[in-house]
Specification:
With 378 residues, the chain is of the alpha+beta class. It folds into 4 domains: 78 residues, Helix Hairpins (Orthogonal Bundle), CATH 1.10.287; 99 residues, Sandwich (HSP40/DNAj peptide-binding domain); 73 residues, HSP40/DNAj peptide-binding domain, CATH 2.60.260.20; 32 residues, no CATH class. It is built from 10 helices and 17 strands. The strands form 7 sheets. The protein has a 4-stranded mixed beta sheet with strand order 10-11-17-14. It has a 3-stranded mixed beta sheet with strand order 1-9-8. The protein has a two-stranded antiparallel ribbon with strand order 2-7. The radius of gyration is 40 Å and the shape is elongated. It starts with a helix and ends with a helix. Keywords: Chaperone, Cytoplasm, DNA replication, Metal-binding, Repeat, Stress response, Zinc, Zinc-finger. Its cofactor is Zn(2+).
Length: 378
Amino acid sequence: MSGDYYQILGVSRDATKQEIKRAYRQKARKYHPDVNKEPGAEETFKEINRAYEVLSEPETKARYDRFGEAGVSGAGAGASGFDPNDMGGFADIFETFFGGGFGGGATATGARRRGPARGDDLRLDLKLKFREAVFGGEKEIKIPHLETCQVCNGTGAKKGSGVKTCPTCNGAGQVRRATRTPFGSFAQVTVCPTCNGEGQIIEEKCESCGGQGRKQQNKKLKITIPAGVDNGTRLRVTGEGDAGTRGGPSGDLYVYLTVENDTQFRRDGNNIHSEITISYLQAILGCRLKVATIDGDEEISISAGLQPGTVITLRDKGVPKLGNSVSRGDQLITVHVEIPTKINSEERELLEKLAQIKGDHTSKGGFEGFLDSIFHKK
């Protein structure tokens, strides 16, 4: 590929600067030596870069249109008239491949740094007791975060002092450095090391915050825990993150919740599981007894002949639905039946009489078989 610069880029002579730039990026991406390993790609890339450096600037473009190559000899990449502040050519290539770390992209970044900046968001991990997660409520927490310095009102400057233009970058917030490569020269833009991209420096720093405009403080907060939260629930507390800089808003605080296990209850979604153990006589004859719920003790009825492993459901005794505390899950109670391993003589006598009435055969130490027949005989 060689010849007319317009043909090299594939644009017409009346193409706009934006059209020229767009065509250049497409060609450069295709023929860049790091991407295209075909023979001649490197030489083509140089021609594309040369064509763009000439046509991207109105003055050199006008000379080229009038006099051709002779009118721009000595201009462009590698020439003695190269301006290190020129952000065309390789700066655009790096912007294309690496996301704007060079040229105009860095300039825009530097400008944004000097405006108000939002503070960082913070995270706090909070552990709740089982019942706190079920019913919610108010919780006091303590967080370390950056607050705006009250002495300097966030300016970072000592009272009576002010700020001045950074002498290193002359207020630009960034510095440029020309670098020569086998493919030509390009300007690398970096954040000014003196002012950290602010463009200004403080004449005398605030003694309270050391010129930062913010101070680390421990703050107590009361937050509301909604009913029905669970492990992994995230609560957002607006404006309680780090304070912003240069008048920017504060970040937010995110509270991540974990819930402790309970000795009596196990949660499954909005349902609660628990277990009780009754005697074999209670299972045979039936009874009424009190059981624990998260709302307190409640009396339930055990039907006569209840089988081991039966699950009793208590409606609306589970966990409130998150965001709708009126709706609740259920409590599921698994009933276990205790079979004694030893009985006294009076108990044995009575059980043997019962076995005779039922016509069951028993032997010494074998009353457990009799009880098994009661609970499992069809």
